[in-house]
Design brief:
With 230 residues, this protein is mainly α. Helix content is 61%, strand content 6%. It is built from nine helices and five strands, in the order αααβαααββαβααβ.
Length: 230
């Protein structure tokens, strides 16, 4: 129990820090203090997230563990296949958003080469194009937060479940769900009525639909026009 508690607390601390650094206040603070801070925010945020998660993984790996269950044979292979499917789902969602844009590498390269930087995405969701049209592609037609859903298969379909893995899984799952709620609010502020219509199309919040939802028509046609100033 002490191991599970230490892992849960450490994961919670990581989650709180991750959320605070994702806030508008953190973005504005970087913009005020660093040249190109707003343009480089997403790259800096992702870089610190990778380093912080590496530290969390190192801490968890050093904790003692007790096996709760271990699946072997064909059933274990099936679980591994489920984990790989989740990874593929996450990659498809990242590609639908744009890997370079999502990681912040596009703006980093633009600034280093003297090219104009682009507006960073409002959050991990469908993006508006240059006409202000909100487009849902790939996994975003199945669920509104695929990048937060995808890791859950890797967490929960592990053939070997230990006390420390279970503690991490519980806290991480709660964080991903709550983070998606927060992300919804950021997307609503950024895209207004266009994102509300996306919600109303019947695309599930967090549990993927089995088939893509058809895009609802608007008075302007079949696209959703974003009312955004971001």
């Amino acid at each position: 129990m002490r191991t599970a508690l230490r892992v849960a607390v450490a994961t919670g601390v990581f989650a709180i820090g991750h959320s605070l650094l994702a806030s508008t206040k953190a973005k504005d603070a970087l913009a005020r203090r660093v040249r190109f801070g707003r343009e480089l925010y997403r790259f800096a945020y992702n870089a610190q997230a990778v380093l912080a998660f590496g530290g969390l993984a190192w801490f968890i790996a050093r904790q003692p563990k007790r096996t709760l269950y271990r699946v072997r044979g064909p059933a274990a292979a099936l679980l591994r296949l489920g984990q790989l499917s989740g990874v593929a789902f996450g990659i498809a969602a990242a590609r639908a958003t744009g890997v370079a844009k999502l990681s912040g590498l596009d703006n980093l390269v633009s600034i280093l080469t003297g090219m104009p930087a682009q507006q960073a995405p409002a959050a991990q969701g469908p993006e508006a194009d240059e006409r202000g049209v909100l487009r849902a592609r790939g996994p975003f037609k199945l669920v509104r937060h695929p990048l937060n859903v995808a890791p859950l298969t890797a967490f929960w379909l592990a053939p070997h479940m230990t006390t420390r893995r279970l503690a991490f899984n519980v806290v991480a799952t709660a964080y991903l769900v709550l983070g998606s709620v927060h992300e919804e609010q950021r997307l609503l502020r950024a895209y207004g009525e266009a994102y509300r219509k996306y919600q109303d199309e019947g695309v599930p919040f967090f549990w993927p639909a089995m088939t893509p939802r058809k895009q609802m028509a608007t008075p302007e046609g079949s696209e959703l026009t974003a009312e955004t100033d971001h």
